Amino acid sequence: MPYAGRTGLYQPGDTAAAILAPEWDVGYKIRALLLDDGTLEINYYEWRTSVTDGRIVQVFEIDPAGYSSASARSYDSIKLLVKKVYIDSTIAGLVI
Description:
single chain; 1 helix; four-stranded mixed beta sheet; mainly beta
């Protein structure tokens, strides 16, 4: 079964990614991805994609207009789960 605009079929180990990446979450967006190793990866891709090849646990869209406070960020609720942050070069030219 293809998922997230991919043309290949997913294997049983890909089930979580298939569930986390439904067709309607498409388009280039700034996303914060919480990975299973505690990494918060921030990137700008068309799909929910981890460039560090981590297993995605939760996905948060980041508002390019910014936030009024740190607690207003969509991903603020997981801050105690974050062990490291990876900011991908795909957001280099974007304002966040």
